[in-house]
Amino acid sequence: MSASPTARISSGILRGAVENDVCVFRAVPYAAPPVGPLRFAMPAPVTPWTGERDTSKNGPVPPQPASRLRSAMGDFSAEQGEDCLTLTIATPAADGRRRPVLIWLHGGAFWTGAGSIDWYSGVSMARHGDIVVVGVNYRLGALGFMHVPGVAEPNLGLHDQMAALSWVAREITAFGGDPDNITVAGQSAGGLSVLAMLAQPQSRALMRRAIVQSAPFGRILRSMPKALQISEAMGKALGITEPAQWRTVDAQKINEAQVGVARSLGAFAATTPAFIPIIDKKLMGEDLMSAALAGACERDVMVGYTRDEMAAFFAADEKIRDASPEQVHQVFAGIFGAAADEAIAEYRLRARGSDNASLLGAMLGDSSFGAGVHAFAERLAALGRPAWVYRFDWAAPGNRFAACHCCEIPFMFDTLPAWQAPMLEGGEPQSMARLAAQMRDAWVAFATRGDPSHPALPHWPRHEQAMQTMLFDHHSRVANDPAGRGRWKYWP
Quick one: 6-303 is in which CATH superfamily? Predict the structure, then answer.
């Protein structure tokens, strides 16, 4: 294999690199750089180039503040810049074969992360599974999800993602990929983004399958009036008095301002970020779930979550640890109303510990993630299109983060060495490597043929009346209704 493979696309020739016998093309532009007058514009076409474009190294990641989950996930370091609408493509060979394609939409609450970082490397999947893996960078935070009338249209980050999907459908044959066999996968904010793609006929037409990981079903969209309030607060924080200033203010100052605005919106046990998709009645309607469900009936779907989602948010939070009974009751009352006391009693039985983080985490994990996963799968099954459902249960012994939000990602990508994550500390390396291979091959199998079962994993049936769910753990297995939806009375 050449040490520097090339691929010819409609814009010009790309020269990549070889990593562990896999061809990797980095910083591949799928849209024009959103800088200067294009800062708040819809994604625009790429300007063609002459000669070869070096795509052997990463470009900038989108401007962003520090991740709020770094205490669990660890952190990464990368150059930031607005010239960030790029892809990272890993392929066994940039040849004429037509391999399955998996597009990855990263999480990070729509304001942190990047599809180009080593956490999400597609090299192992491409090498072991003979598929093409594409990581997407898209605009984040205020630059991607703020609405300023006459300046910034809503949901630019989602438009970026959809532009990336369109680019892949047009160009992926140059990388040995099959445009008729595209799976779009995403976690957390990325999982919600996959639902948005399922809801959109134009995007849905370009994808054959969808993998929705830990999507925030319970806290998903921002109303237009609230979005306008947030943009007004941003303008005040930045001292902006004229619309043109939005296109010239320094991106780092925007970062700093959005952190301050997010803090002003904060409340006890509230984890909804400041910049999320907006109900604009164009790209996003009032009822995303029903629209996504209709789209999911036409596609193969895998959906899942982690057992202890909220531990990533609460395990290291002193305010949660020291909360008063009144504060806890208020959170439950916001979900269950007059039945708050009964729900608290039930969740004390369901929680893995007796502390506030366990109690609130169990309920809010259901409210934000688990209940939505099961409800979505149950509605699909009722429509005759059952999904494959999983729950990630693995946790390192004694680790306070348990099976928290994001904990499945190092395993499904088989990128454990790239992570220096507190949530993984204490795990047994051989057991972790075995689970990573199981999960990697399940995701590859699903992207390849629409069924995640494979020889190294117990048979994985679809989620039907028995609520069959694959539990990924030290010894992965299928369980019927492991969440207890048939036993427990109070669900969010």
Answer: Alpha/Beta hydrolase fold, catalytic domain (3.40.50.1820)
